[in-house]
Amino acid sequence: MRFRHPDGSTVHLAYCTNVHPAETLDGVLAQLRDHCEPVRRRLGRDRLGIGLWLARDAAHALITDPAALRGLRTELDRRGLEVVTLNGFPYEGFGAEEVKYRVYKPDWADPERLEHTTSLARLLAGLLPDDVTDGSISTLPLAWRTAYDGTRADKAQAALVTLAERLDALQELTGRSIRIGLEPEPGCVVETTRDAIAPLTAIGHHRIGICVDTCHLATSFEDPDTALDALTDARVPVVKSQLSAALHAEHPGDPGVRRALAAFAEPRFLHQTRTTTPAGGRLGTDDLDEALAEDGPLPGTAPWRAHFHVPLHAAPAAPLTSTLPVLKAALTRLVGGSRPLTRHLEVETYTWQALPPELRPRARAQLTDGIAAELTLARDLLTDLGLKELP
After folding, report:
1. What is the DSSP track for 76-132?
2. Which is it for strands 344-347 and 10-16: parallel, antiparallel or unpaired?
3. Element (H, E) at 48
4. pLDDT bucket at 21, cuts 50 / 70 / 90
5. Helix, strand, or coil here: 310?
6. By Cβ atoms counted within 10 A, which residue in 59, 86, 99, 158 is the most buried?
7. Do the Cβ atoms of 344 and 12 come closer than 8 Å?
8. End-to-end CA distance of the chain, in Å?
9. Which residue, 13, 122, 5, 126, is CA-closest to 70?
10. Could you tell me whether strands 282-285 and 208-213 are parallel, antiparallel, or unpaired per DSSP bridges?
11. pLDDT tens for residues 290-323?
12. Are 330 and 217 spatial neighbours (Cβ–Cβ below 8 Å)?
């Protein structure tokens, strides 16, 4: 979906396909047929943006076979779909029964991450619509925090510098500008937007910036205005933003609240949980079940937030809620001013099938309806900010 900003530029809205498990090119093509095109039709739109997730095997099939890439581009066009952004964070296995810590491998100190992201950039240059010259890719925020020492930090920085050089060469060759955004996430080396400033300014290249995920922003109790002001002052570009909402518990010390939270503790994904201290600091656990354990490390005297991407349009039932207000505040700053801070927005609720059983979509059509409802909410927020939806 495209929107005209009051400054005349185009803002793109997509939804991320990592909600649909697919490791191979055939799986990606099935996604387009079974999920993406039905969402477009459900919205009544001639064109729908998707934030494509290409796992290692799918990316390899495309990068080694130009005919396959042309076929994918043709299939996108035929189904009324367009791609201006990729999710390059998960490398493989995102649809596995247990993902947890594996999603952070390989990290930016590993050569596989650089090669995979280079391939994604080349593929995106070939997938961009004919009238679009700018693409974006989100990626993991350097590494998970453990086993990350000075040597690995140097390797990661060198890899990102090499990537920037390759992206420069790619633009010279294709005329397409591809940028990469580190996506701060709780528990990682770069946990917050502020954590991103030092490594990104050290790299000092306009092609390497930040992806602001509003669930992660909220989970870390970051204030959107403060965070975006700091990025602007440091001249760190916001390459893209993922529109998502975290799980919020206002009174986690209450037994009923803890029972409600326990329904969201599940074995597939990590649900990092955070709370604040009276002095303004943060305490946290790597997963929600750790926070809920008897004599767990988090006090119940201040609100908790858990890294669980809940559907934007459907907040959890009381006594829980979502951090949709944080998303709204961030979006106002991102695209509500005289010029947008980013032009690539991506709804990223990948946890539909990890919701408590009674909340999960039971059929493909229900998932289609849910994704369409999320995009409708995002569209309404954008038009309320003065953007005009384009055909």
Report:
1. HHHTTEEEEEEE-S--S-TTSS--GGGGG-S-TTSHHHHHHHHHHHHHHHHHS-TT-
2. parallel
3. strand 48-52
4. confident
5. strand
6. 86
7. yes
8. 8
9. 126
10. unpaired
11. 999 999 999 999 999 999 999 999 999 999 999 9
12. yes
Q: Which stretches of 223-351 are DSSP H helices?
A: 224-233, 255-262, 288-292, 324-335
* Cα 385 to the center of its chain, rounded Å: 22
Residue 147 has pLDDT above 90, yes or no: no
Residue pLDDT, tens place only, 248-297 = 999 999 999 999 999 999 999 999 999 999 999 999 999 999 999 999 99
Annotate 366-390 with b (16+ C-beta within 10 A) or e (fewer).
ebbebbbbbbebbbebbeebebeee
- In the prediction, which pLDDT does 382 show? 98
Neighbour count for residue 39 (Cβ, 10 Å): 21
How many whole angstroms separate alpha carbon 140 and alpha carbon 163?
14
How many Å apart are CA 82 and CA 73, to the nearest integer? 9
Q: Cβ(224)–Cβ(254) under 8 Å? A: no
Q: Which amino acid is at 256?
A: G
Residue range 149-155: mean pLDDT, rounded: 97
**In the structure encoding, which two tokens stand for residue 149, read together?**
């020492």
